[in-house]
TrEMBL record:
It comes from Catenisphaera adipataccumulans. The keyword DNA-binding does not apply. This is Ribosome-binding ATPase YchF. Residues 2-259 form the OBG-type G domain. ATP binds at residues 11-16. It holds the Pfam family MMR_HSR1. Residues 129-163 form a coiled coil. GO terms for molecular function: ATP binding; ATP hydrolysis activity; GTP binding; metal ion binding; ribosomal large subunit binding. Belongs to the TRAFAC class OBG-HflX-like GTPase superfamily. OBG GTPase family. YchF/OLA1 subfamily. It comes from the Bacteria. Its cofactor is Mg(2+). Keywords: ATP-binding, Coiled coil, Magnesium, Metal-binding, Nucleotide-binding. Transmembrane segments: none annotated.
Length: 366
């Protein structure tokens, strides 16, 4: 499963946020496939479509799809130089698919800030520079390997790669993340093979206090971080880690009441989960029946047999076809019978590219 690593300076609220995540962690019994490790939190992806399907089908079980966060504690200034347990942390980030960068946007004199003042843009830059420095090392090592080959032979591939490396290096040296470099599809293949930290998609999390969170747009700290994010075309999610920690122990009804009391439209953690899912190009297809209504994660662009294989390898091996309708149709018509009568049920073959929100019935040979 794909995972987003939580990074940030010390005392910005990472542990508080991770607590909120582990408190809302799914029951292993319902998700036997989830491997739950101490530094990993597996959460349900909130999805109103599943709630609506449950209303219509009255299933015995309702199962949301899940997403994983990994706690990457302790990334500090100097990590790329091996400060502290620097290299260990950097290699932990390397194992993640996206980065969830928590930045302190709350004041609290009792909680020291490692840099002695609240300055979201500076803080974001400190972490980003560490990641960039680590990537620079990777790139320099790669250049040492490829340069010779590109110069002394007519190896086309080596030259094409060198062309990328020669643009990437100054880009990183200028303090820019790899993800913001304009590259061709061919170059994207090289870039992927380096597994650079700053090529991973990032979401900034503005950790705000209980007051600031009621109107993030009016908060100068949030605005400062938002500017950083906009420059990188990255998302920023405002939340209050403390509130999320309180919410994490509550039932859905209690949660809604608590949020209403605070004047908040939704849980910031829920928004974060949804954004993290989206930056990784993840989509959801649904299965619906009287036994079970369930959401399944797939990568955008996957075809029907591969999606069938997510449920069971036999579904893929023996794939015949899929019967498909959209969530909008079941929401509108109310039953599968009505969908059929309206001519909205489609039969799709092995080349069908599954769409987010499709409701799938797979037909297969056993
Ligand atoms: P970490 O070092 O990044 O893991 O930070 P922690 O999660 O341990 O938080 C550091 C301190 O900040 C703790 O005392 C938290 O209770 C406090 N804290 C975390 N989030 C918030 C918040 O949203 N508002 C306020 N006021 N304090 C917070």
């Amino acid at each position: 499963p794909l995972t987003a690593g939580i990074v940030g300076l010390p005392n910005v609220g990472k542990s508080t946020l991770f607590n909120a995540i582990t408190n809302s962690q799914v029951e292993a019994a319902n998700y036997p496939f989830a491997t739950i490790q101490p530094n990993v939190g597996v959460v349900e992806v909130p999805d109103h479509r599943i709630d609506r399907l449950a209303e219509l089908f009255h299933p015995k079980r309702t199962i949301y799809t899940t997403f994983e966060f990994t706690d990457i504690a302790g990334l500090v200034k100097g990590a790329s130089q091996g400060e502290g347990l620097g290299n260990q942390f950097l290699s932990n980030i390397r194992l993640t698919d996206a980065i969830c960068h928590v930045v302190r946007c709350f004041e609290d004199k009792n909680i020291t800030h490692v840099e002695d003042s609240i300055d979201p843009a500076r803080d974001a830059e400190i972490i980003n520079l560490e990641l960039i420095m680590a990537d620079l090392q990777t790139i320099e090592n790669r250049i040492a390997k490829v340069e010779r080959k590109a110069k002394t032979t007519k190896d086309k591939e080596a030259r094409a790669e060198m062309d990328l490396l020669e643009r990437l290096k100054p880009h990183l040296e200028a303090g820019q993340p790899a993800r913001s470099l304009d590259i061709s599809e061919e170059e994207a293949v090289f870039l992927k093979s380096y597994n650079l930290l700053t090529a991973k998609p990032v979401i900034y999390v503005a950790n705000m206090d209980e007051v600031g969170i009621t109107d993030p747009e009016a908060d100068p700290y949030f605005q400062a971080l938002k500017q950083v994010a906009e420059k990188e075309h990255a998302e920023v999610v405002p939340l209050c880690a403390k509130i999320e920690e309180d919410l994490s122990g509550m039932s859905t009804e209690e949660k809604d009441l608590f949020l209403e009391d605070l004047g908040l439209p939704n849980s910031g953690l829920d928004t974060l989960i949804q954004k993290a899912y989206a930056v990784l190009d993840l989509c959801t297809f649904l299965t619906a029946g009287e036994d079970e209504c369930r959401a399944w994660t797939f990568r955008r662009g996957m075809k029907a047999p591969d999606c069938a294989g997510i449920i069971h390898t036999d579904f893929k091996k023996g794939f015949i076809r899929a019967e498909v309708y959209t969530f909008e149709d079941i929401d509108h018509y109310g039953s599968e019978q009505a969908i059929k009568e309206a001519g909205k049920l489609r039969l799709e073959g092995k080349d069908y590219v599954v769409q987010d929100g499709d409701i799938m019935h797979f037909r297969f040979n056993v």
